[in-house]
Design goal:
Arc Repressor Mutant, subunit A, 2 domains, single chain, mainly alpha
């Protein structure tokens, strides 16, 4: 009979909570990457393949990249809108200042010299 790695040993080596370990184990069982042995869990050929190909590391990286992409897709339009509002506001401010200067010049021209 095959000897496996005990649940307690796995829990200590991974340094995760029991809940997190149960989630990990359920995923590995579902994907047929581990099985129950005499003393604990045993890795299957598919599990060895996933390990050697860094399957779960790549999956984790893709998950993190997708999170970043999602945040960027939200933040970029907001920042673009803020920049556009500032640009329009500055443009309007300069037009108003120019108009005020024109009116001041017109008033100076009409002012009698005394």
């Amino acid at each position: 009979m095959e000897k496996g790695l005990s649940y307690k040993d796995i829990l200590n080596n991974l340094n995760v909570s029991e809940t997190e370990l149960n989630i990990i184990i359920s995923e590995l069982y579902e994907n047929k990457e581990i099985k129950n042995g005499h003393d604990g869990l045993i890795i299957e050929k598919k599990g060895i393949s996933s390990f050697s190909n860094n399957f779960y590391i790549k999956q984790s990286r893709n998950y993190k990249l997708n999170l970043i992409k999602d945040y960027v897709q939200i933040i970029v339009p907001i920042l673009t809108s803020i920049i556009a509002i500032i640009a329009v506001s500055n443009n309007n401010t300069s037009k108003i200042e120019k108009k005020i200067n024109e009116i001041e010049n017109q008033l100076k021209e009409k002012k009698p010299n005394g």
